[in-house]
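tool_log.txt
---
The assistant was asked to compare two proteins side by side. It first ran the structure predictor on the initial sequence, then on the second. Raw inputs and outputs are pasted verbatim so the downstream comparison step can read them without reformatting.
(1)
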Amino acid sequence: MELESNYEIARTASFILSRNFTRVALQFPDELLKDSTRVARALRDKLRSSEDNVSDKDIGLYVMADTTYGSCCVDEVGASHINADCVIHYGHTCLSPTSTLPALFVLGKAPIGVSDCAENLYNYVLTSGKPVMVLFGLEYAHAIPDIKVAVSDFEFSRSNGSTSRLDLHFGDVTCSVMDPSENSKTSNGNIELDDGFTANQGSGNLIGTRYSIGGLSWVLPEGHYIQEYLLYWVGADNAAFANVVLTFNACEIVRYDAAENVLVTDVSLQRRILKRRYYLVEKAKDANIIGILVGTLGVAGYLHMIHQMKELITRAGKKAYTLVMGRPNPAKLANFPECDVFIYVSCPQTALLDSKEFLAPVITPFEAMLAFSRGSQWTGAYVMEFQNLMTSFPVEVRDQLEEARFSFLQGGYVEDYVSEETSEDNGDGTLALVKATEKALRVVDSDPQSVIKGTAKSGAEYFAAHRSYHGLDIRSNNSLPEPFLIGRTGKASGYEDEKKQAGEFNESANDK
């Protein structure tokens, strides 16, 4: 019964049957993979025994693990390998919007001492002198209704039955089901997200400012601002908490550690991260070659953000290269020593890489906007979700970005000048793509003595010209490298030397 409750077997089966899905991907993080076979078996039994299952087709369940990028995001690429109709995502999630596949999120039920948490919260509200906003890791969402009741009981019992009212507010889980086909779209094809704009709440007439972060959302009354609130975080010191600390760095923040049943009031270590990020922004301003790291292939809008980063870098007179390599690490990025800095386009909970061990800094799209936009200054505000940056560029930059359009036929962004030159290309688009690449490489070179200025026709040629080590170069008397053959050439089924030997053997046999 505990397995069925924690993994919400009945709810998951209802979701699959109500939408007539026949191929379902079950995505588990590494720490929950041990339960995957039992969950799949219980879910299969529930689907077969359900009265709602009137279809004769057997529903295929496919377990996914070892995601290419962060396990908190829906792995749409992995699901597409088995032509899945939907993804059931288990465990910790950032609730980043999906691009193509519908998803159901099973958040899990982490253990927590409800009474102890409620008592700490009640005491802190009384002594803080500020309104309190309770935010939490999504794995504790199941306990929030009980915590609310427990706090009300403390309030009633300790006020001798009077009806005093604590200035206490709670965030709400944004959603547990995500379907891109049902979401409203913006003009650039990205899912419309709440990001601090004025909105109505519920059926009442309350007008205020809506905030959202890490799958939580809340509305503050008109005239109230989040800086005025104390944030009470329920959960672990993880990426979700770091996201909150950076985004709301002007707020006083405390954390209730549910695993240790203790209230942590010192979050200075997390705040030091902000100083480190500011240092990386200043260092990135001196970069000439920037690598854009693709950190997700499923979060809605990632292609648009990559394109905006390219435009931003090019207008700053620098060179940009897009790199797809899965989860980055120092060894992988060391293969690109030409890059002075890397921009990591990913979900907000995997965007912060501790790049102390890397040869070059790794920054976020928001930090890149500060580093490469002329006249930009850091006001202290910090944005983790790159969807919120889509409308944060200067007006002149946004207007120029609208010149590019996304082509689903070509699988990428198509510039206007490409279509103008396709008439010279015999209809296959190859020449236009080559010319577009050449135009993209025509960037002002900061080094007038550069030996490759105006000669690089591709990213590979540019990297090759800048490398001091080119692999195995056989040199004689300090002369230029000469072709030198080591090993065999040809196909494994018959190398060239083997064919030659076979020919000589046949000739000798005929002579006999």
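(2)
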Amino acid sequence: MKQYVFIALFTATLTLVLAWAIWRISLKYKLYPGIRERDVHKTPTPRLGGIAMYLGVVAAFAVSAAHPFFSIIWTDPQQPLAILGATSLIVIVGVADDLLDLDWMIKLGAQFLAAGIIAWFGELQIYALPIGGMTVWSGWVSFLLTVFSIVIVMNAVNFIDGLDGLVGGVALIANVIFFAYSYLLVRDTGASTYFTLASFIAAVLIGACVGFLPMNWSPAKLFMGDGGALMLGLLMAVSAIAITGQLDPAIIGDNDAFGRSQLLGAFIPIILPVVIVFLPLLDFGLAVIRRMRAGKSPFAPDRKHLHHRMLDLGHSDRDAVLIFYAWTAIVGLSVLLMYIGTGQDWPGEYLAGVVFGVVGIAACLVVTLLPPTPARSESSAPEHTPQEAS
């Protein structure tokens, strides 16, 4: 565990230092776009924070090559190099969009290319679904399922990049929960080492988010932009595929560590990676439906995302962000607790997860739908609310 703590702290420290430096350089050379018609913030703010996060991630991978605990990553360098190559591509295109506002077709093409690099050259694909021994029946099906899954998660994370600290905080909470899950899963399956590529990526992303949030908390000095949000989505999808999509279904179906609830133990490896990005996926789905019904591109920007609706209900920007944090934590922790309960001879931990989830979701619904302040119009949105990226 201490090795994971080290890599997270290293990434966080480097990301924070680089974010501050990029903020100063951006202000000095005016490396920020003007206010666009769809933007709701009124002060031009640099959007290059994704560069700091990217460099922190790259440095963490470099350190892993020299660290004995993580050196197993580089036994076959094809996977880490593919991950770094795809990440570099998506950050370059994202930063170009943050500065030049690229056409959505260019961004989408780059996303598919990056996902293809992961699936084809990195050979990180969804080979199996841990349900009753189910495997993906075709190499091309596995490839396409992997590529579309990565692209969907990338866009889902990017779509919620609309309030100061929102994406960074949600990704931080999601990766903490996913790290705990992947760590426990490896323990329960009786592996000889607690190290996995999924746990490593989650630890690195935890560090990148912790390092960036001080610069992004309301009022934000620096936005992560498309470069940062797309990178987070890409690596979160890759970490989930690295452990869930390649997990032998027989390990879960036959392992006594999952106790009485064999069915739940089989489904959670699929459920939890989806649950931790539940809000981004929900927002993404609603946005696609809304825009296509209006005869627009599913990637045409608008101001009708979930966080915008919360502002219009009367929540302040900070309150809305904290409520998103609560939703992510409640839903993710509930499933994690239920997973922990599957390894017990009595249902106490499982029931604790169910009760925690029901009570927590009920509380979140009340807070979300009954804000403490009167509803306000769009024109009164906070000055520092970031641009709608997608």
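---
observation on (2): Residues 2-28 form the longest helix (27 residues). The two ends are 37 Å apart (CA to CA).
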